[in-house]
Sequence to fold (226 residues):
Amino acid sequence: MDNWHQLPRAAFDLETTGKDPLEARIVTASVVVVNGRQEIINHREWLVNPGVPIPEEATAVHGVSTARAMASGVDPAVAVAEISAHLQDLFQTMPVLAFNASYDFTVLAREAVRHGVPALLPLPVIDPFIIDKQVDKYRRGKRTLTALCEHYGVPLNNAHTSVADAAATIGVADAQALKYARELAISPSELHSQQVLWAAEQAASLQEFFRRKDPTALVDGTWPVR
Fold:
């Protein structure tokens, strides 16, 4: 399966109440499955009532207000159970792609604990964010999903909606697989293991940089779940 970008694969994305994955609650979730030609063959989406007010700054990003989530969102325990079960099924036969996976899978893991849902084992995961920092270490500029879409020539419409971001994540990963075949033409399981090491190395490097000004700075390099 070293040609994983030419086989069925999925992408997972969340929009949430905040930036801290240990505290954020799920507002929307999307799981997109594509075939070897990057055609969507399955798509599931959830609008969730997070059970807490959605901050205005979060609503400004993804467009979901507290009122809309309360009126139309599903119960978070139900949503977390469904999302986890769906992803667990997919992991049996294909990799799941997630941009900055340690955010999304940590949010999901914390929500699972919060609502008494069995923990998901996310494996194998492919993360274009970690990959990009590994294969093109010294490129200047931002490494957001929007920036990487521009860099790799991937269309991104309706950014910060979970379905659009999930689809764009697949496009970026596929572009990376083609451009960096020497590093990435390995099985999804092997690539997952490599990303665990890369994420730890990247965090250690960033922590060393931060400690030039703050000797107590800590950067968590645990991946894909903190």
